[in-house]
Amino acid sequence: MHEEISDRARTLLRALVQRHIRDGQPVGSRSLQEEAGLPVSAATIRNVMSDLEERGYLHSPHTSAGRIPTALGYRFFVDSLLEVKALDDASVDILRSALNPDKSSTDLVQTASSLLSAITSQAGIVTVPRQEAQQLRQVEFLPLSDRRVLVILVINEREVQNRIIHTARDFSDRELREAAALVNQRFGGQPLDRVKEQLLGEMREARSRIDDYLTATLDLASQALDPEERDEDCLVAGEAHLLDSAGAEDVDKLRELFEVFERKKDLLHLLERCTRADGVQIFIGEEAGYEVFGDFSVITAPYGDGRRPLGVLGVIGPTRMAYDRVIPIVDVTSRMLSSALAR
């Protein structure tokens, strides 16, 4: 709970945060007097600022007579003073066009991270749906030369994956058709990770019966349905935007943050906490649970396919980001991505 502060203090705190977000510099009393437009003296404003500093909402950098918001100040601003803007039509049109439901789920998720970065000028983040959320719909096998087989997988209704596998023996066209029919009959509609477990069990059973053809068929299916190794569980786009808004004193902090992007462990842990959240979540500074986020804010929202949550998307930027614009962008992007995935 925030302490009660006067209407005058609220007005001045709002004006100071807005000025600092816009300029990135400590705000002095005269600048604040101009920004707030209150009919009070600079001395009165200094007294109010001093009181807000004692309460922990403002901080005085030792190199300046002005003040900047603390994480607590930003939290009060976001919770009590912020007026969120409706998303402009141009941004809505960009999102609607790019998040086309005819795209595969993989393309949609990759697009979302780039869109968030481009529209907000911050770093965009999106977690990739877990493998168990992918269901096998259909598989086809087509023979190639040199014991190679083209595998065509249909995942989650409309996502099509193609891959080439190498087999230990030659398969005829008829054998490949029969193998596909067997896989589709036994495993169609099941999650890929469960299919893999069942295939391994049936392969062990077939080998114990010395059923060479069934063993070869199941081995073919196992290769075909082995989930592809994903390089990314979390996609991050637009890290360069963070450099654009950083000063020389922020370089070391950014280096640590980029290491988090590289390792992704801490970032994924944070985003996992947001998967089942209801709507937009805002973490300011160390509210995220990690010291490395001390000068940054993370704004997230979950996305799904209408039946279950699939992941989280959001934005990472400096604490002085334009919350009034970034929050609705994250919110609308999550809704549009969910709508596209539901079709």
From TrEMBL:
Top-level taxon in the UniProt lineage: Bacteria
InterPro entries: GAF-like_dom_sf (IPR029016), HrcA (IPR002571), HrcA_C (IPR021153), WH-like_DNA-bd_sf (IPR036388), WH_DNA-bd_sf (IPR036390), WHTH_transcript_rep_HrcA_IDD (IPR023120)
Keywords, in A-Z order: Repressor, Stress response, Transcription, Transcription regulation
One GO MF term: DNA binding
Pfam families: HrcA
Single GO BP term: negative regulation of DNA-templated transcription
Record domain Heat-inducible transcription repressor HrcA C-terminal: where: 107-327
Function, as annotated: Negative regulator of class I heat shock genes (grpE-dnaK-dnaJ and groELS operons). Prevents heat-shock induction of these operons.
HAMAP family per UniProt: HrcA
Record-stated family: Belongs to the HrcA family.
Protein name: Heat-inducible transcription repressor HrcA
